[in-house]
Amino acid sequence: MDGGDVVRVLITGATGTLGSALCSAGRRFGHDMLGVSRTKPPGFKECEWRPLDVRDGESVDRLIAEVRPDLVINSAAVVGDWKVTAGGAVNVAVACAERGVRQLLMSTDAVFVSRDEGYREEEPPSPVTPYGAAKAAAETAVSAIDPGAAIVRTSLIVGGAVWEIATSGRSGVHHVAGPESLSQYELAVLIARRDGLDPHRLAPVLRGARPGAAVIRLDCTQTQTALRTTLRGASEFLTEGVAGG
């Protein structure tokens, strides 16, 4: 699969924030996109859509057999729902592996516990939240079921890098994030400024039981070395075109 080819892509969790962004990016790159999810919001127009509950393994297998995609990107995840986040990943992985379909699992930095040093791709997960545990379980299952699958851990939506990995045939874990470390509050301030909102109305809050619990850094050096796409920091791409930014 070459990055310049038109690829038939199925994206699970397509109506979520991450899935919608990936659908839009895929269309910009000229790929043939099909998004699936349990329900479709009224304003969803990012790509063709069909209903699918990834918790139903038989339904997942039937759809993949019918659509025959070149690539499946699994971004289906629900905080607090193990059956979707972990069980759904197993169902997608099994169906793809049995039918020889290339797959990429979207994961998260939440598979790690907070620490000052950045995590490398080869380090084992150390989740402290139920969502992080579900994603770590999904990673383990997908890697065991289909060693050729790619797994992308990210803390931001970095569409170009994700698509480069997806269409390159690369396998294993990849860290895709910007070169800078931002808290959720600092990221929210940048987004507010970009959208012309008053950042002073935002209040910083702590996620977790102690200060710094949300500080998780992904070391992306290894992945960046292998990519043509430059992993840019949020403060760079969120201030483009903003007066005074």
Low-confidence region ranges: 206-213, 241-245
Q: Helix fraction?
A: 25-40%
Please state roughly what percent of the residues sit in beta strands, choosing from under 5%, 5-15%, 15-25%, 25-35%, 35-45% or over 45%: 5-15%
Strand order of the largest sheet: 3-2-1-4-5-6-7
Number of helices: 8
CATH architecture of the domain at 8-177: 3-Layer(aba) Sandwich
Which geometry do the CA atoms define? Answer: globular
CATH superfamily descriptor of the domain at 8-177 = NAD(P)-binding Rossmann-like Domain
At the fold tier of CATH, the topology name of the domain at 8-177 is Rossmann fold
How much is the radius of gyration in Å? 18 Å
Chain-averaged pLDDT = 86
Account of the 3D structure:
With 245 residues, the chain is of the alpha/beta class. The chain has a domain at 8-177: Rossmann fold (3-Layer(aba) Sandwich), CATH 3.40.50. It contains eight helices and seven strands. A seven-stranded parallel beta sheet has the order 3-2-1-4-5-6-7, sandwiched between helices. Strand 1 (8-12), helix 1 (17-28) and strand 2 form a beta-alpha-beta unit. The longest helix is centred in the middle third of the chain and has 18 residues, at 82-99. The termini are far apart. The model is unreliable at 206-213 and 241-245 (pLDDT under 50).
